[in-house]
Amino acid sequence: MEFDISKAKAIVEVRSAEEVNRYLKAGWTLFSNASMTTDSREYSSPIIKYALAWTADNNPVHPNSY
Description:
Strand order of the largest sheet: 1-3-2
Keywords: Plasmid
Mean pLDDT: 89
Strand content: 25-35%
Number of strands: 3
Radius of gyration: 14 Å
Shape: elongated
Helix content: 10-25%
C-alpha cells in the first residue's frame, strides 16, 4: 500500500524504535525509514531514522502530551 503524503497534517522524524512505538501507539503512521552512518572523524556509527505522519482530522497527538 502506497502512502499519500498529501494527507499528512504533521510529520515527525525520530531515531529510536522505542520512540517510533510511542508514536504508533498515539495513532501516527510510519511511512519511511532510512539507514545511514554518522560521519565523524574519529568513528562512524550506524543510525536509523524513522518518519511518521499524522493523518487524522484532529490535532496531532504527540506521545509526551498524553
